[in-house]
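Ticket #4471: structure output looks truncated?

Reporter: J.K.
Steps to reproduce: submitted the chain below (231 residues) through the standard prediction queue, then opened the result file.
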Amino acid sequence: MFSTKSSSGRYSRTARVIAVAAGAAALAMGAPAVSNATPVTVVPGLPPVEVPTMPTVPGLPQAPAPKPKPKPQPQSTTPEKPAIPAEPNVKSPTGWVALAVDGDHQIYWWKDHKFVKQMPISMGTDKHPTPNGVYHTKEKYRDMYMDSSTYGVPIDSPEGYRTYVEYATRMSWDGIFIHAAPWSVAQQGVSNASHGCINVSTENGKWVYDNIGSGTPIVVRGTVGGQYTGD
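Returned output as attached by the reporter:
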């Protein structure tokens, strides 16, 4: 049996589809051609209709553009340098003041209260520690031989030595110097390896030799040694 109601329903749906297609086609013909038009299928089986992006209308609020996600920052693998400590409060006839810190194995230099230079060092081992206290630079040697007999240890004993060194600046009359020690560069800034002297690289030893005058205070701090009481 033929159903008028069913036919009417199908006709109504078809009419709506045709009307949507006609409207989309009219929109496509009336809007200016743009490069970012998007094909839209309105009626299945018919070619898609390109619906262009509508131009911005002045005065109307616009949706904010999406913010780009921040790129993750690479983490630094470079070890941080030790912070510069405060200058020791000591008098200096030369304007120079030095602080040798056992905790970070560094020596710091100031000139007229302005920080100038930092060097990695290696001081005396626990068996031969560098005493803490205030030393003052004395005579200098461009090169010399150091030997343990100067403080009572024969050079042929197990603890004895006789070593050629360069750029040696005396800190005490009992045999403590700051001097070039290229053989301990790997320990400088890391650990203690000397018999009590302050070991530095050849370059840094030359800098001390060339720049630091007699009477400059060098403060040693944080070692396991006792207290230096000399002049």
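Triage note (M.O.): checked the attachment and the full token line is present. The chain is about 15% helix and 25% strand.
Status: closed, working as intended.
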